[in-house]
Task: structure prediction
Amino acid sequence: ITIIAILFLIFVLIMTTTSWVEPAVVMLGLGVAVLINSGTNLLFGKISFVTNSSGMILQMAVALDYSVFLIHRFRECNDEEDDPEIAMLNALKLSTSSILSSGLTTVIGFLALAFMKFLIGADLGVALSKGVAISLITSLVFMPGVILETYKWMDKTRHRSFMPSFRGLGRVVCKVSTPLMIAFVLIIVPAYIGSTQNHYLYGGSKIYGPDTRLGSDTEKMAEIFGDNDNYVLMVPRGDRTSEHALIRELEDMPGINSVLSIENLMGIAIPGDMLPENLVDQLQSDHYDRIVISAAVPVEGDKAFALIDDIYAAADKYYEGEYYMAGTGVSMHDVKEVVSSDMVKVNFIAIFSVFVVLLLTMKNLLLPVILVLTIETAIWINMSITHLTGASMFYIAYLIISSIQLGATVDYAILFTERYKENRKVYGIAPRECVMTTISDTAVSILTSATAVSVMGILLYIFSSQRIIGQIGLLLGRGTICSLLAVLFVLPGFLMRFDKYVLRTVGDKKRQNADEL
Result:
């Protein structure tokens, strides 16, 4: 998958750049960052299969835009300045704010996963946030030197742009900005509700698809034998009356095929010493009796979880807080309880942290609200599509994508907003004209990164034999497209509508009063 992803990434760069050398320069920067990150993963001792399978591809995809933003800025500055070193200094001055904001929001988005109780989140989150931080440092420290050493080659190998002029797109966006903005606002609540209605998978029972040997064999066994799972319930030994009553209650529950225990083998009046010793040893210890439950339910799902809740309730009635339960389905039930509590925490940390970073870097109270709401709505739309198609979603994929899509694609909104403010403040362009100019200035950079991320995601979806990795890829690819459309078609309307507030920064009023004095 990695080799195919790299080839597609090079193809995307060739199509969106104007030099045959530029893709190689970008890939060099990415390669250095990926190698450093992969090497430093040794510090963790071991990483999960999810991180190992998708970490490198995700790092390349989400960190691509830092080098692209810098190169495009250098090109603009170099056209206006004869001295390339001064041009690079100007490019860094103009792009560092956007790159740092983009990098920090992405790092924070990944780090939010580290607060999950489900340890795979911390594993993936720390590894990816480290990778993005390394990519960020590489872009600002290593890449300027590489660009200065290779810019002559980039100039000599220039070719015509394969991308169209986006001035026309800007005019279209200006014409439809108001209805699109209204429609977007109206869809926020339905999108959020839809994103919460998905049917989730919490364990590994569906990780492998039918195109794999394990997945195919599992499906065939389910077709032949039906759904089944086994649970073990451990209850304190000695209270035969309570145990007998519990077993009767379990046997009457819909979905339970059989209940095996020392109690129903010997009956209420038969002494245990009449049973074979090896059988007794399997069902009874010094302190606990073992109850084996065979259930005609899948390993996980609403039906299985409802049955497990009923068993818990029955056991609690007779042995409150003194029993233990185990089994694959029980483990999935426990995972559900853990990761469900992670949802609010991870999303809050990611949204709040990104908001604070935007507030500190943009020094504007309204812009963080607009940018975060724009990307969050794109995330909700992405998740709602899964619900509308009737597909099940791995809960860990939901949590990962919620953080990754916010952290990675808010970069596009940051770049667009910063360029819009620059065009308004420095060049004094009117809001409507400014939107057209900003789209023309940023569309190629945004499309380069968005195309790379979406292609990487789709490749994971197509080629990964593990469903959870494939679903992360699908959600990432589709979510990136949702964010791209929101940034290019909806965000401009918000910026024009709230233009006078967008241009303000914290402290403007104080400076104005000081100037008057």
